[in-house]
Amino acid sequence: MSSAPEASAVEPPSTGRRGRGATGARRVLVVLLVFGALAAGCVLFSLLVGATRIDLEALLRFDPETLDYQKVFRHRLPRSMAALIVGGALALAGLVFQALIRNPLASPYILGVSAGGSLGAVLALALGVTFVSPAAFLGACVAILLVYGVARTGGRVPAGTLLLAGVVVNAFFSASIMLVNLLSARDDQARILRWLVGGLREDYDAGLLLPSAGATLLLLVLLFFLSRQLNLLSLGDLAAERAGVSVARTRTVLYLLASLGTAAAVSISGPIGFVGLIVPHFLRLILGPDHRLLVPAAVLAGGGFLSVVDTLAQSIFVLPLPAGVVTAFLGGPLFLILLKRRDRRRAGLDE
Amino acid sequence: MVRFILLLLLVAQGCDRSSVERQGILAAQRWDSKLFAELPLPELEFTTEIPGTGVPHRIVSFIPSVTEIIFVLGLGDRLVGRCHWCDWPREVLALPDVGGLQNASQEVIVDLRPDLVVLFRDQVELAGSLRDGFGLRVLTPATEETDRIDEGIRELGVALGVPERAEVLVDYLAREMERVAARWRDVPGPRTLVVLDRSSLWVPGRTSFLEVLLETAGAVNVAASLDTDRPWPSVSLEKVLEWRPEVILDLGIGKAEDLARGEAARFWSGLSHLDAVRNGRVLLFQSGVLVRPGPRMAAVAEKLGEILHELRS
Amino acid sequence: MNETATAIDGAITARGIRYSYRGGREALRGVDASLSSGSFAAIIGPNGSGKSTLLRILAGLLPRSGGSLEVAGIDPGTMKSRHRARRIAYLPQDEPEELPFTALELVLMGRFAYQGLLPFDRDEDLTVARECLALVEAQELEDRLLVEMSGGERQRIHLARALAQMPRVLLLDEPSSSLDLHHQIEAYRLLRRLVDEERRTVVVVSHDLNLPAAFAEQVIVLSQGEVHAAGPPLEILRASVLEPVYRTRILEARVEGHPFPVLLPAP
Fold first, then answer.
1. Which chain A residue has the Cα nearest residue C106?
2. Which of residues 227-266 of C touch A (CB under 8 A)?
């Protein structure tokens, strides 16, 4: 945040209403620190809480031979990292899709990317192929290209067509998934159902997590540099174009980035719902509409949120639940609360 | 194009598998994974003949264990249709497949003109439809419930018109199970973890049939301590760590055996901090007969006991 | 603001501009227009005459179907968005109302074309934004959310945003439609000042015949996609010229203190 230079005769006014002013590096840093601390707290929570109890004293001896050490550092830590990556990527993707489609109901899954990923995974499971994650990623990419190809009109991907294309591709892939499921062996069907619910595993290895983390980080950085464009796009395509944004190209790039982020997330954990829908909304309530703040906050809040939800899913019941089930349960009422607040705000303003 | 991609995936997987197996995860696998699946049916001596009347002539069976029982009771030639999962004895594979739990083909069943259809308890709709809609005789025996297997066999015996033969089978099984249990009664049992599905980590609860098998085989089912009545609860890996099993039986090998083997090896090699994995005591078997409370159960239990105790020493 | 006396010419030269919709209907059938740098023009005409379409084409936001065009030294249809935005600013008739941003944030967004890779607002952006708000007499609204403003206030903020682009050419579609008398006059006076003091070029599309007349040097009358007449207001804003275009009787009234006759539709 900068102050007006002395040369200007215009001074910041003192108004009755406290406003936001301009967004500078300092404000972004504050957001990063606050949400970073929150995310770190969530990760700590997920390390200490889980399906079984941990003896804290034993843990703090940091002896690799002890059960507690193995549980926390060989299982809970990779799982937490995966939650950060998946939750962060989904929240970012959701944020971008909501800006691209200018519809608060937009989620990373509305455009068929996750259905494509699920189909790839389901086919792999039904055929007995081990590499489910790469198959899922491949399937998601097919869906991305398909939606893009269908939605493209004259070099750009307009909001309305994008949404329609996504819904259609989604429906097609979902039907295909059902078909494959019906035709597969009983054992495979159980595994397919498990995948479709969406959840994190306890046995991630560095070979999968490191590149995914790198990809999510890259996504964050690229989207951060595009955050002004996101702001302008939320005003409308025309408004963005006249301000100097190459709308056609920017929309395409944003669509691809968000879709690839979703594809990566889905290929790690299957389709976990609501994170990409709820987290951006909550953040907008707290931080406002500026994407320069929303983008860094989304990745941290999304990751922390999923990490906590997953930990709860593991520990509340006798038997561990997949995270996808819990987000589905939480998501509905949370979304209703959000909608109510929005309506109340709007109604209040109309008076 | 799709085939090409699949091929790529398979090749990549193949490369991966060989490096993993080199680690010797499956070093203990000196037994064929189909070992249990191919155990022979018991041959019993019956004193009674098969009556000419009151015995169904065209039987369709949806329950794999019942299919086996029918053969053991000497009525195998009356089977006209089998379910998708009925695979023993080998003769039944020649029979028409009437589908599985989810995709049972009513048409095919009715077309076979059966005078007895044996269904699972769960197949309520199909049972109702065959009974009320087509007037067929339907039986849903208790054979799949761990503590009511004998009752189920007797039910079957009555329906098949050979109750005395059923009684012979019940006695045989009781004797054999006791004999097998006695072999290892005084020997400390290996702590055994059985996993039916790696991705969900389904383990046999204390009400499952596998618990009976393990107990008879003189092994300790680590999952029996779970406080649940579900036969196949799913657990977290942390629980597995706490259990510290000495031997692991992975029943996730199915049709695409080579691929599943590679996947299993990869999965367990990631858990090298488990004693069983470190000592190379992970075994892979086809699951079918191990979860089937049928006439081979004593033979299965005995084989299981032999393997587990041999590994242990 | 006053340091923008660059050498870029703000002239507009349009020859034979055509535009057809996908369905084939022709909105513009060969429009010629010529504005020198530092001039103020008004485009008037009945509904459907193609005014807004022409303005969009001049802004480079609509691809023309034919003809040649040069605005501020470039062809806006082929220029990269960012470069175009530094030279040409366009203000449409309607803007979405539900914008959750503050006035300052919105005006700062107008600075996009000048900002680099880092998405932060720099001191100079802040200065320019505040100056633009002052120009439209909206300094007090700086921290107010747009959704909490009246239509007129919003329109002034949008104008400030266009000004923040520091363009050579301003293309405005009905810039005063929501403004009260005071702000209407102030807006046009502001535009006139920009033309006189900074040699910018301003083109306004307007339904109101009288207000632009007082400020513009050139009036272009469009009718059914063609230029019906073009020239200084004194010549053009006459009932004889305009009655065939608007197809209604027009009264000319001489008002003391007003340089041209005031035009009113006959009741």
1. A232
2. none
